[in-house]
Design brief:
Blueprint (H helix, E strand, L loop, with lengths): L2 H87 L22 E3 L15 H4 L20 E4 L9 E3 H4 L12 H4 L3 H4 L2
Antiparallel strand pairs: 1-2, 2-3
Amino acid sequence: MSFPDEFQANLEALPSILQRKYSLLRDLDKSLQDEALEEQKHAIRIADEKVALAAQAYDLVDTHIQHLDQYLKKIDEDLRQRDNVAATTSPVLTLAKAGRSGDSSGRGRKKTRLAKVTAAAAGASTNPTSMELDLPVDPNEPTYCFCNQVSYGEMVACDNPDCKIEWFHYACVGLKEQPKGKWYCSDCAGLPKRKRGK
């Protein structure tokens, strides 16, 4: 067989060979598309299950938070009732400022004082707590310190006889124990010595 005849015979067979190859490619594409569609449906099912589980977990946590809020609210109400009963049966006494009357030098004045607390709070820390500050307060009771609260816990007096505030809670001025020597509040500490008193 001559080269042109062989070439022509191969050329005549080429379309059927290409058709078979393209047919196989189409079949593979269809199979891949079907598999991808199934995988996509499977992935969507899994994603839906995950969303449902997340929603259940959220609802479970939310329910527990609501129960905890109710429990804490009940505890808060019980504590307020107990504090109100304690406040009415054992009133808090306010201490007078020592050394202010008849002693312009400020000498003889007590350096610190400890407010009398109710029997229910006798074992409590001297630092103020929100519960202690939420107790009902006599509107006529004087207020002290930068926080403008009533007398409670340990307090320190400013040694400037002209100090406008005079008494301060330890926690509000960063003290943990009685200061040694003279002590001035931050307002008076910046004043010249002659204005602070001698």
